[in-house]
Amino acid sequence: MKTTLSHIALLLSLSLTALGQMQPFTLQEVRLTGGPFKQAQDVDLTYILALNPDKLLAPYLIDAGLPLKAQRYGNWESVGLDGHIGGHYLSALAMMYASTGEPELKKRLDYMVAELARCQAQNGNGYVGGIPQGKVFWERIHKGDIDGSGFGLNNTWVPLYNIHKLFAGLRDAYEYAGNQQAKQVLVGLGDWFIELLKPLSDEQVQQILRTEHGGINETFADLYILTRDKKYLETAQRLSHRALLNPLLEKQDKLTGLHANTQIPKVIGYEKIARLTGRADWSEAATYFWQNVSQTRSVAFGGNSVREHFNPTTDFSQLLRSNQGPETCNSFNMLRLSKALFLDKNDVSFLDFYERTLYNHILSSQHPEKGGFVYFTPIRPNHYRVYSQPETSMWCCVGSGLENHTKYGELIYSHSAKDLFVNLFVPSTLDWKATGLKLTQRTGFPYQNASELLLETTKPQEFALNIRYPKWAESLEVLVNGKVQAISGKPAGYVAISRKWKSGDKVMVRFKTATRLEQLPDGSNWSAFVHGPIVLAAKTSTADLKGLFADDSRMGHETKGKLIPLTNAYALVGEPASYLTQLKPMGRLRFRLDTLTLQPFYEVHDARYQMYFQTFTPAAFAEQQARLKQQETEALALEAITVDKVNCGEQQPEVDHAYQGEKSDSGYDDEQFWRRTRRYFSYQLQNKELAGKTILIVALDDIQPDNVTFSIDDAPAEVIAREGKTIRLKVRDKKVVTLTISAQNGKPTPRINQIRVLTH
After folding, report:
1. What's the pLDDT at 12?
2. CATH superfamily of 643-758
3. H-run or E-run covering 119
4. What is the Cα–Cα distance from 703 to 697, expressed in whole angstroms?
5. Coil, strand or helix: which one is 508?
6. What are the backbone dihedrals phi and psi of residue 567, each rounded to the nearest 5 degrees, phi first?
7. What is d(CA 270, CA 666) in angstroms, rounded to the nearest whole number?
8. What pLDDT, on the 0 to 100 scale, is given for residue 622?
């Protein structure tokens, strides 16, 4: 605890002006006492304790050449991203320990840090990591041998992203749990990384940063905060990706098509570096990014992206059709960015988005009884989500999911030098030891529109109690010891009550909420019902929930159940004024809508659901349904004969199909992704039950035989048909086949958009 407080004091001393007046409380100072967030925290604690530290440490021991104490986990921990969950686990242990004081968490944390220190000592140069063949890989980078793409660096799966998780985990072990050894390992790892980069030019570093690298720039800024050694701050700036930063500095939106969770952590780093260097333009760039993503690219529950990529701001139709909706990792990082900007700017609008995303995406992304974390949250009507399991699932959203539910206390309250701010209505206690103030918040929100604040203080003291007036509140009333207060605040601000407070003072906050329809940002006729900050949805079916709890397959995080035609979705037909009047309140945030029951989305589990509803005037309904039915019929017919598919140029589909390649690049043109090469690239395609008969390859350019060849399992592929931008190949009778696309005559291949294994 002493370490944590001194760390915060150091942050404050760096520059009060740059950091702003608003400060967070430590997780140790806030305790959850009830409600859905406390339940989620408890469920997460059980999941955390179900994991085996020795299995998570195995990749690090393997790379250090030390004997294993347990075999490593499977899934993503054994196919290239080995060790990434271990870094997240350090963070989760540290923050959950800070939030609960559970001794077993500290015991596990100290054990893991000691084992990592042992690996670092064995390596002898400061390095510690779980990346497969890590020493060989890093030596190639040190020598300037760099061949990178969006997720592959020298055919290694996002190695900087992977090691960033360890950097962050060690930082959190020190910052939240006071583990001094974690700081020593972190500094050693940072020094090794700086030496690794020394021979490289800035251009080579930027080439490395083309590959997803998490918030590696942020963690070097953290190293500067911990040590005050400028070399770390200089490295943080060197590790800031200019291809994203420069357009943001110019307030240019170049985000469409980019892999969303690759970008958000970079921006968190820009904001932290801005605070430490006084670079106002970098902070403005971070704010511009946040505004763009939160206001024009996010759906009602706060999530963003389709199939992990930013979709066009003017067209959310892909998001409505896809079974791969917003990724939970995106919201994990958008909350981190929102928190940083709120503390820096003292702007409540950041809290409005933070609260919306916290309740509706983060809280909904964990199964409330069984545990398990969600990767994709589709907004496609009548679809569902998949939950992880401790022994089978090691996805990125499991790593961030472990952390998500450990830190709900981080922004319920904040403070300035002497004033207190109540930001969220969550049952909890605050122990502000520096001032001798204790506060207990009792509330049934969001089911009740009131919150009671009880104050205890060692002596009467004068300060302002600032209560957030949410943007969604229709009105707000404050009573102190039963007396109504005259307030001057307005929505999206604070109501300040200044007086000399004494023990036993009681503050009652009451507010009114209403239900409204919120359109998708593209202005289309799809809308969600939102009550206050709570997104409502309806359970529609429990049929065909295939893969509801994930197995250990590479793509276990994706739903396997059939897609229900969009024309089957419930629609709101009538004049616009009638849409809301169709809702009939049933109590506890439940509303009857014809045959459906709307309820908070975070309560909807183990079922298909509908969150977005099309709205029509009677005249438009028939015409639109006919057009939509034709589109759906064609799309579902193709899906019905598809055994496997790869969306080329998209990160996760390529990872899931074991992409390999040299001199290959990818891009996004005319709202379509692609990959091409001057040498080769390959995928492993699944032919389940040998049902596939042909491979359909679709390109964005004509497929010229002189410029490209296709082989299957290292043998020339048999061409069935070739026409313009498509080619069909015969599939071999094997459950897994490797398709290789190679360039010829020194010319690049066409831009390949999609590959499907078809039944005929």
Report:
1. 38
2. Galactose-binding domain-like (2.60.120.260)
3. helix 103-123
4. 10
5. strand
6. -70, -15
7. 25
8. 75
pLDDT at 5: 42
pTM of this structure: 0.90
User: Could you give the C-alpha distances from 456 to 307, 415, 450, in angstroms and in order?
Assistant: 49, 17, 20
Distance CA 328, CA 398 (A): 9
Q: Give the pLDDT confidence of 537-569 residue by residue, as tens digits.
A: 999 999 999 999 999 998 899 999 999 999 899
Lowest mean pLDDT among 3-17, 590-604, 672-686: 3-17
- Scanning 607-658, the segments in alpha helix (DSSP H) are 618-640, 651-656
Report d(CA 457, CA 725) in Å as an integer. Answer: 74
Q: What size, in residues, is the chain? A: 760
pLDDT digits (tens, 9 = 90+) for 435-467: 999 999 999 999 999 999 999 999 999 999 999
Q: Which two tokens stand for residue 522?
A: 């593209």
pLDDT digits (tens, 9 = 90+) for 16-31: 333 347 999 999 999 9
Residues 686 and 658: their CA atoms lie apart, in Å, by 11
Strands (E), 460-606: 461-469, 475-480, 483-484, 493-501, 506-512, 515-519, 526-531, 534-541, 571-573, 584-587, 590-593, 596-600
Closest by CA position to 415, among listed 12, 3, 98, 99: 12
- The answer to whether residues 693 and 758 touch, using CB atoms and an 8 Å cutoff, is yes
Strand partners, 680: 662, 742
Residue with tokens 């992203």: 161
For CA atoms 180, 181, 186, 188, the dihedral sign is positive
DSSP string across 224-236: HHHH--HHHHHHH
- Where does residue 306 rank: exposed (0-12), middle (13-18), buried (19+ CB within 10 A)? buried
Phi/psi for 165 (5° steps) reads -60, -35
Q: Which amino acid is at 185?
A: V
Of 54-58, 213-217, 689-693, least confident by mean pLDDT is 689-693
- State the pLDDT at residue 624: 75
Domain limits of the chain? 52-239, 515-630, 643-758
Q: Give the β-pairing of 461-469 and 420-422.
A: parallel
Outline where 487-548 has alpha helix (H).
none
Walk across the sheet containing 420-422 and list its strands: 23-24, 413-415, 420-422, 461-469, 493-501
128-150, pLDDT tens digit by residue? 999 999 999 999 999 999 986 66
Q: Above pLDDT 70, what percent of the chain?
A: 97
∠ Cα 405 293 676 (to 5°)? 105
Alpha carbons within 13 angstroms on the beta-carbon side of residue 173 total 30
Phi/psi at 389 (nearest 5 deg)? Answer: -130, 145
Band (pLDDT 50/70/90 cuts) for residue 178 is very high
Whole-angstrom distance, CA of residue 187 vs CA of residue 686: 44
Scan for tokens 């408890």, then name that residue: 42
Which of 138-152, 346-360, 637-651, 745-759 is most confident? Answer: 346-360
Q: Report residue 698's pLDDT band, with 50, 70 and 90 as the boundaries.
A: very high
| Beta bridge partner(s), residue 24 | 414
Q: What is the largest CA-CA distance in the chain?
A: 86
